[in-house]
Recover the amino acids of this structure.
């Protein structure tokens, strides 16, 4: 009986020693503190450069005494130059149309061709963020 008691005592001490073992992983050295890298600065947009554009379409309508049909097309070309907070530019556009409208009157027919406009322009502008600064 004495041997059984010694074995029980030895097992109890062993289990207690395992339960009280130090947590070695918690004793790691703390990481070195480092600052976050500075935030990336947004690139400044520059409006300088050439641009070109095109447009076109077709129209058709027939409503009894009045009718419209034909096509149209055109384009835009320009150049902008930005200095500091201001944008200077020159632009031209042209359009052509082959649209005719007509009114039907019994015994005759009237037709009105659509005009073909062209407009050159220049501009000076400031971006919105420059206007609010």
């Amino acid at each position: 009986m004495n041997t059984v008691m010694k074995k029980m005592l030895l097992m109890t001490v062993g289990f207690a020693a395992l339960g009280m073992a130090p947590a070695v992983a918690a004793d790691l050295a703390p990481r070195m503190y480092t600052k976050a890298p500075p935030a990336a600065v947004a690139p400044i947009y520059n409006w300088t450069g050439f641009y070109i554009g095109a447009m076109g379409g077709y129209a058709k309508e027939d409503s009894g005494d009045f009718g419209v049909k034909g096509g149209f097309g055109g384009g835009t070309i320009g150049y902008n130059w930005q200095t500091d907070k201001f944008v200077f530019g020159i632009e031209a556009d042209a359009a052509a149309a082959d649209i005719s409208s007509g009114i039907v009157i019994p015994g005759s027919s009237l037709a009105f061709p659509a005009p073909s406009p062209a407009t050159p322009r220049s501009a000076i502008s400031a971006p919105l963020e420059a206007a609010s600064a």
About this structure: The CA atoms of residues 40 and 91 lie 35 Å apart. The beta strands are 49-63, 66-83, 86-105, 108-113, 118-125.
